[in-house]
Amino acid sequence: MFEKLRMTKNLKTQQDEKRITVGFFGRVARIARVHQEGLKDKVSKKGPEHQYPAQPLLGFSATDQALIRDSLLRHLNMF
Length: 79
Fold this sequence. Notes:
Blueprint: E1 12-15, E2 20-23, H1 26-37, E3 40-42, E4 49-51, H2 62-77
Antiparallel strand pairs: 1-2, 3-4
């Protein structure tokens, strides 16, 4: 179901003078969020609502978070 979500055309960037954001926007973001968090949403525009189970698509494991934190701290200690 999420094969198309992984396509780079769905991953967008937004930026301003202080930050850059990479992620899903619009309809794609809503669909991803519903499945990521297990929310209730309509099956189709005029269809019934359905409670979707949480199916995490995105995120970092505890190991990933530790690697990122350690890498960032090493980088900051260089200065």
